[in-house]
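Lecture notes, structural biology module. Today: joint structure prediction for complexes of two components.
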Amino acid sequence: MSLAHRIIPCLDTDGERVVKGVNFVNLRDAGDPAALAARYNIEGADELVVLDIAASRDRRPTFLETIRRVAAELAIPLTAGGGVANVDEGRAILRAGADKLTVNTAAIRNPALLTVLAAEFGSQAVVLAIDAKRVGDRWEAFVRGGSVPTGIDAVAWARQGMDCGAGEILITSMDKDGTRSGFDCPLTAAISRAVSVPVIASGGADTPETFLEVFREGRADAALAASIFHDSIQGLGALKRFLGENGVSVRQTG
Amino acid sequence: MNIALVEYGAGNLPSVERALARLGVESRRASTPEALAGCNALILPGVGHFGALMRSLGERSLVAPLREAVTRGTPLLGICLGLQAMFATSDEAPGDAGLALFPGKVSALPPSDRLPHMGWNQLRRARPSKLLDGVPQDAYLYFAHSYAALDAGDAGVAYCDHCASFVAVLEQENVFATQFHPEKSGPVGEQILSNFLRLVGGKG
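The predicted structure, tokenised, for the full assembly:
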């Protein structure tokens, strides 16, 4: 009996439609978020993440409506975020039907935001998302959808974010994102060693073997992927069977 | 069937409402003593902070009516923080009294593994359970918490192990509770909610 490793499909949206790109650019339409959510809910996703990667203020009501539509399809937990900068925006996302919210850029600018959000909603509802890129012999955190370097060490930031109140770390490797060349296991392992909260690895998902690697070598508690699931390159059931056969605790479904 | 979700200004009522709706049950929200009094069954969902929950129930004058409803025999299902609120006290808010339907306290889980305990875990059955009727022994349920009741005497019917052994399902006469979120636990969670509805004479 042990906590299962989670497989988490991610819906990157422009607020309304699922979009995807490589290394955070060249976005193209990949479907209706509610339809994909319904599919993943049945196929055995352990959780779902829906992000507003445009995060423009005018489109926020559209994104809240998207969260409502997605949540209506789910009997599993939902995490949502994108541009959350204060308690009111966080509350709006949770009220729309998310169980947890992600914070990224605003937390780097003001780490106390994590403390305020955790006090208001509980640490279990606050996920610190970090976009990290290899720079020399370390990883640097980037903000604004991976477009702006911060000079901040991603591993140290994960640790500080946890101390401020984040209940989970979502670490995305910008070097690996969209490349289907495997997760960044050294980055994930470094984050995992630095914190005592659960760590979700993101960026680079490909074959079932890449998931096995990130759970074993990357010491991830959960792994997130988008296009391999959206494009039906990898089925959730087959992936979980493979992991189970290889000794990784997973929730088998169906 | 008159089933009410206790509304205290926080918590995750919509997801529980949606889960009940999928089972064909219309629920309503009760946020006043009068509304509580007229119900056949009550659900106390909860996420967040023990102290905030108890203060919020107190501000709405719901603490005594909730206890009275239980004494009258009204079935009550607590979910997550709703389970914790049934105890006398919690490490999370030492100054705030709980509903005290059960003696003892809710403890901070010792940090011997990752916390919060977040994700899908299995149960260890201790006694026959009505809520878990038909649920496979190796089923996974969704948890998201850092505090837990380590013991509930004969009321503890199933436990879970993460950092410590803690109460995952609690049953005593008309009082039921789960530390996990049945409304977020896929088909297995649906089975558990359905069992509760059947026990209280609703559908399911």
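Point to remember: Residues 181 and 207 of chain A are 9 Å apart (CA to CA).
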